[in-house]
Design goal:
This protein has 77 residues and is α+β, with helices and mostly antiparallel strands. It has helices at residues 11-27, 39-44, 68-75; strands spanning 2-6, 32-36, 52-55, 58-62. The protein has one domain (2-75): Glutaredoxin (3-Layer(aba) Sandwich), CATH 3.40.30.10. A four-stranded mixed sheet has the order 2-1-3-4.
């Protein structure tokens, strides 16, 4: 599984990354986590509001910082 965090590196983006890392740790799953901060790349994916969470190429949410429990539910699909 490949998880991408799209954002400029703002406080919300850093919080999303931390929450994703915690969710992955709690779930004990092996994933690749990539940060994408290039605005052209972010826009190319149709994301206009960051941060965004992308799993295996699919944008699951944007403009929000979900709690760890919510991220775990999204990743368990």
């Amino acid at each position: 599984m490949k998880i991408e965090i799209l954002g400029s590196g703002c406080a919300k983006c850093r919080t999303l990354e931390a929450n994703v890392r915690e969710a992955v740790k709690e779930m004990a799953i092996d994933v690749e986590i990539v940060k994408v901060d290039d605005f052209a790349e972010i826009a190319k994916r149709g994301v206009m509001v960051t941060p965004a969470l992308v799993v295996d190429g699919k944008v699951l949410l944007n403009g929000k910082v979900p709690k760890v429990s919510k991220i775990k539910k999204l990743l368990a699909r």
